[in-house]
Amino acid sequence: MLSEEKIIELFRGAVYHRQVSPPGDDAAYLEMEKGRYLLFSTDQLIEGTHFLLDYFSPQDLAIKLTERCLSDIYVKGGRPLYALLNMGLSLSLAKEGIFVKKFARALKQILKEHQVSLIGGDTARSEKNHFSLAVLGESEIFIARQNKSIQKGDILALEGYVGGSDYVLSLLQTKSKISQKIKNVHLRPRAWAREAHWLKSHALAALDQSDSLYESLFYLALANKLHLRIELSYLPLIEPLKELEENQRLAYLLSGGEDLAVVAIVKKEKASTLPPRVSLIGEVEKVGGKPTLAFFYKGQKIRVENLRKPFAHFRSVCTENEK
Question: What is the 3-state secondary structure (H, E, C) of the chain?
Answer without folding.
Answer: CCCHHHHHHHCCCCCCCCCECCCCCCCEEEEEECCEEEEEEEEEEEECCCECCCCCCHHHHHHHHHHHHHHHHHCCCCEEEEEEEEEEECHHHHHHCHHHHHHHHHHHHHHHHCCCEEEEEEEEECCCCEEEEEEEEEECCCCCCCCCCCCCCCEEEEECCCCHHHHHHHHHHCCCCCCHHHHHHHHCCCCHHHCCCHHHHHEEEEEEECCCHHHHHHHHHHHHCEEEEEEHHHCCCCHHHHCCCHHHHHHHHHHCCCCCEEEEEECHHHHHHCCCCCEEEEEEEEECCCCEEEEEECCEECCCCCCCCCCCCCCCCCCHHHC
